[in-house]
Amino acid sequence: METEMMGIPDIEVCVRDMFGIDSDLRVPAYSTPTEFVPDIDPKYVFNPEVTLAILAGFSHNRRTLVQGMHGTGKSTHIEQVAARLNWPCLRINLDGHISRLDLVGKDTLVLRDGKQVTEFQDGLLPWSVTRPIALVLDEYDAGRPDVMFVIQRLLEKEGKLTLSDKNRVLTPHAAFRLFATANTVGLGNLQGLYHGTHALNHAQIDRWNLVVTLNYLAPEREAAIVLSRVPTKNTEQGQRLVSQMVALANLTRRAFANGDTSTLMSPRTVIMWAENHQLFPDVRLAFRLTFLNKCDESEWPVFNELYQRCFDEELIVQSPLFDSQSSGTDTGTRA
């Protein structure tokens, strides 16, 4: 079934039955998936508050912004909700190279009856707005502020998309939905962590109907996710190791919040560490290759102390600037 031929959702689903959340909310959905519906991840763990906000976006056409630290699964959360609703979903990464022409459209040369003619080609926004698409503006605060004004009116519930270049006004499809993810909620790179993000116009941020924060999971839930992603660790010894990994990750997050470090371990990093440990049996070497080498060397002593708290052994003995055996030349017996 072609997405552009689909109408409004044809069924309703019970939130309590589908997502295991104590809510009487019923959400419209499609009975048949299309090529634009994300694949279902059966092991995905939903955050109840964030899930309800996203579901409200789908059921009541509310513009929903999900903000939080990197690695918390903001974009994936929206996609997995859409997957279970069979709702077509399109994700656009708003890097600094996305221009107004990319979003709105531009004149292109096409062949008509053997002749080259100029024809306007719709950009990502007009294409999405006129279809039953859940459009996700990923890394919303990384988009150029001047470009983001293109969607200003579209953020309103009954907003329309005006294409001034073609004197067209597009009315959104009844099943069009708009979501976004951001690290800073448009406040810019205040902490120096998210280079490339911008301070966005507050009048535009104010147009988002729902803003929800996706934080890191509780340790036991995070450990459960790691074990589901790396099932070879689902043994008594492996579970103990993963618990230590998650404990260390939480210590790095606390150190970051206190200003002691400029880097933290996200859940994604913990999963990669567990996966890399399968390749490198020395847990210290796997940790160094997964995370430590991404950090400023001046902060290595801090991570060494945090590692020692969780694993009761030294991660590094001397500063990497002076100890060749800690610079990656050893075989993993000393990390």
TrEMBL record:
Signal sequence extent: none
Domain of life: Bacteria
Domain ATPase dynein-related AAA positions: 65-186
GO molecular function, one term: ATP binding
Domain annotation Cobaltochelatase subunit CobS N-terminal: ranges: 8-37
Protein name: Cobaltochelatase CobS
Taxonomic classification: Bacteria, Pseudomonadati, Pseudomonadota, Gammaproteobacteria, Vibrionales
Alphabetized InterPro entries for the sequence: ATPase_dyneun-rel_AAA, CbbQ/NirQ/NorQ/GpvN, CobS_N_dom, P-loop_NTPase
Species of the source: Enterovibrio norvegicus DSM 15893
Pfam family, one: AAA_5
